[in-house]
Design a protein that fits this description.
By secondary structure, the protein is mostly helical. The two termini are 40 Å apart. The model has no long low-confidence stretch (mean pLDDT 85).
């Protein structure tokens, strides 16, 4: 249990974020954006690259990352850091290949883009999948991680405390739309990074530095914990080939085709701001390995040397340390009162930014992809009202999912397990749609339907028959297998049912792979081509060092 000072800091922080969010909403109203749907859902398409990059990062980095990446660092070393560094490659894809089409087409949602490239049925299916994934992945799991933190640190009832935080977040999100979300996410990103740096330094200092940590690993014959790319005999289910072939399937869906993430880019002032904002987020994604994952590894070596007491965590069903609460335990044992409150604020930042981003994307999709489809004459005021109701319903439904999601031993693995089974058909349809003229509407529909059904069946077999070949296949390898099936299905069906392009769809695929590099760009270091090359080089060098 923490002191009143830490609780006070957390409460003050929540109050400040609420005030900032409401003021952002009031500012939007001053510009008469509360009755303008584009202003409410897409911030009037006025977002600049710093806000886009920070908001992308904040929407991605939730309490789940702070808690679960530290847990994975404790359990497996730097291995799960692959999800952070590989994201840089997919953010380059977003900046170079997807942003131009999204902004040029003027869409408010990605399902809308899919209709313009293919047909209406593809839009309907993606809307359904996107809303479900936002509720489960972006809101549900984040609530669970936040609840675990608040229960561990303050002894609060998990469900009641999460309900209160969610209501506060919902207030400024529903009042201010995307503008309020982006403004608060920018603040929350700074607080989150500051908190992560504090706990990272505390763990580093307690251990005595990098070399003592490395010596402990060497003494226990566990130096492979510093390796990011492991061979096929690694027992953690993520060999190098799973990362190389499987992650892009998950990453392209998450970073290039998921409404909750991409909505910040859709609100960009212009193409260059959208592109550079995505690349800025790519540079930020280098940090989590060092400030989220590495502290967990330091916690492991501190435990091995008797400098960290894990007795309060207990044991899991397999007799190992129940590492779910390792991050909160590090906070209470390594930091003095006052700084603990700052870390709690950082954890709440991750939770609130994830919830607000997902609520805004859900309200946008329900308003544009469902309500407006059925009532084309709907006014902007009606669209905003429907979006607000949808956000409230999504929040209530997510709260109801918490007991079910709590069954996963690792929250982070639970998220990626779900993504691995829903992303292959969506990734396939978007990639072929953008890069291949021949990708047809019928093929997209068949791929989304059959691929999604296949993903559900594989997921069910994985859980019911864990000793089967399907159950024993690493989830990222399975994602690649599912993608190959979807790819074959769409290519074959495209030849059987050729595409009949409309004037609109004719402009929504690249005729030449080099065309994305010929777009207008800022001069100097702000040139998206230079930034893409720089980011690519930095991440490649890091992989060579930590291979």
């Amino acid at each position: 249990m923490l002191e009143n000072l830490d609780l006070g800091i957390a409460i003050v922080y929540i109050a400040l974020i609420l005030i900032v969010g409401i003021l952002a909403g009031v500012g939007a109203r001053a510009k008469k954006m509360e009755t303008n749907a584009e202003g409410y859902f897409l911030a009037g398409k006025t977002l600049r690259w710093p806000a886009i990059g920070l908001a992308l990062f904040a929407t991605n980095i939730s309490t789940v990352h702070l808690v679960s990446l530290a847990q994975s660092g404790f359990d497996t070393g730097l291995l799960n850091g692959n999800f952070e560094w590989m994201a840089a490659f997919t953010l380059i894809l977003l900046a170079l290949f997807f942003v131009p089409f999204y902004l040029k087409s003027g869409v408010a949602t990605l399902p809308d883009f899919l209709e313009r490239r293919y047909d209406r049925s593809s839009r309907d299916w993606l809307t359904f999948i996107s809303i479900i994934s936002a509720i489960v992945i972006h809101i549900g799991f984040s609530m669970l991680a936040g609840g675990i933190v608040l229960r561990t640190l303050f002894g609060f009832n998990m469900y009641l405390s999460i309900a209160v935080i969610s209501i506060i977040t919902g207030v400024y999100t529903i009042l201010g739309g995307l503008r309020a979300v982006v403004v608060t996410e920018s603040v929350q990103t700074i607080v989150l990074l500051a908190g992560a740096l504090i706990i990272s330094y505390a763990a580093f200092d307690k251990m005595g530095g990098w070399l003592p940590m490395k010596s402990v690993l060497t003494a226990h014959a566990e130096l492979d914990r510093l390796s990011m790319l492991r061979d096929g005999h690694d027992d953690h289910g993520m060999p190098w080939y799973a990362v190389l072939f499987g992650y892009p399937i998950l990453g392209i869906w998450y970073w290039c085709a998921d409404q909750t993430i991409v909505q910040r880019v859709l609100g960009a002032k212009d193409e260059n701001h959208g592109r550079v904002g995505a690349l800025f987020c790519g540079f930020l994604k280098i940090l989590p390995v060092f400030i989220f994952v590495l502290p967990g590894l330091f916690a492991y070596t501190l435990f091995k040397t008797g400098q960290l007491d894990l007795s309060s965590l207990g044991l899991d069903a397999t007799g190992h340390v129940n590492s779910k609460g390792i991050y909160t335990l590090m906070i209470t044992q390594l930091l003095p009162s006052g700084l603990i409150g700052v870390l709690v604020a950082a954890l709440l930042s991750g939770l609130m930014s994830q919830i607000s981003g997902a609520l805004n994307s859900i309200s946008t999709m329900v308003s544009y992809d469902i309500f407006k489809r059925r009532k084309p004459a709907a006014t902007d005021k009606q669209l905003i009202q429907v979006g607000k109701i949808a956000a409230i319903c999504a929040m209530v439904f997510s709260l109801g999912l918490l007991p079910l999601l709590d069954k996963y031993e690792s929250i982070f693995n639970g998220i990626n397990d779900v993504i691995a089974h829903i992303s292959p058909p969506i990734t396939c349809v978007f990639v072929l749609g953008v890069f291949w003229k021949g990708a047809s509407a019928v093929s997209a529909k068949l791929t989304l339907w059959i691929g999604s059904l296949l993903g559900v069946l594989v997921f069910v077999v994985n859980k019911l028959v864990p000793d089967s070949w399907i159950g024993q296949t690493p989830f990222m390898v399975m994602a690649f297998y599912l993608f190959v099936v979807c790819l074959a299905l769409q290519v074959i069906s495209s030849y059987l049912y050729p595409m009949k392009h409309t004037k609109q769809s004719e402009g929504l695929y690249w005729r030449n792979p080099l065309d994305p590099l010929r777009g207008a760009a800022w001069s100097g270091i702000g040139n998206y081509r230079i930034l893409s090359a720089l980011l690519l080089c930095i991440v490649t060098i890091l992989y060579v060092i930590f291979r």
